[in-house]
Known about the structure:
This protein is of the alpha/beta class. The chain has one domain (5-49, 72-207): Rossmann fold. 32% of the residues lie in helices and 30% in strands. Strands 1, 4, 5, 6, 7, 8, 9 and 10 form an 8-stranded mixed sheet that branches. The protein has a two-stranded antiparallel ribbon with strand order 2-3. The chain has a two-stranded antiparallel ribbon with strand order 11-12. A hairpin with a 5-residue loop joins strand 11 (188-189) and strand 12 (195-196). Helix 1 (11-21) packs antiparallel against helix 2 and helix 2 crosses helix 3. It is globular, with a radius of gyration of 18 Å. The relative contact order is 0.17. Bound molecules: uracil.
Amino acid sequence: xxxxxTVLDHPLxxxxxxxxxxxxTSTGQFRQVAREISLLMAYEVxxxxxxxxxxxxxxxxxMRTEHLAGKKLCIVSILRAGxxxxxxxxxxxxxxxxxxxxxxxxHTTLQPVEYYLKLPNDVADRLVILVDPxxxxxxxxxxxxxxxxxxxxxxxxxxxxxxxxxxxxTFTAEHPDVPLFTGAIDRELDANGYIRxxxxxxxxxxxGTR
Length: 210
Ligand code: URA
């Protein structure tokens, strides 16, 4: 396994991923479970945040304790399915800033083309967590990561619910410096670009559009 890839295999995550994969899970349940998973993933990917000392007073006495150092994080969602991951992450990280990047696939070149980008002005000073539930071919995530680096981002992590081996290979080849976190690595990508066994089209399952 590539060293910069972490499979988040906490039993709660594994259980909840099974619920997401199940075709009988309703749209409402899917959204709720994805929110719970995203919160748990945010907890895992922020393990190495730096702390700094702070002096406070408890009701009983002064104390030196610690709090998070530096600027708050930024979560960047790859539209549209990335938004399904945002809610749960913001439950845990309510002060995080949020950015959005929209990409579509050009039918001729088959390459992702940016149609929307909105980032906080000071995104370059923040740890950015880039989110997209499905790392399929890896092209959208790799393009989004490149765009963030172009905007000056130096501290970047990528988080998805499920990854295909092909997506991991593409992303890690282009961004060996970006830690990648996933709930599972599935068997393969099919001819239509779906992850197998997967969970189907994440956007459709979040928003009930099919
Ligand atoms: N995007 C999805 O939503 N599902 C897949 O299986 C692959 C890409």
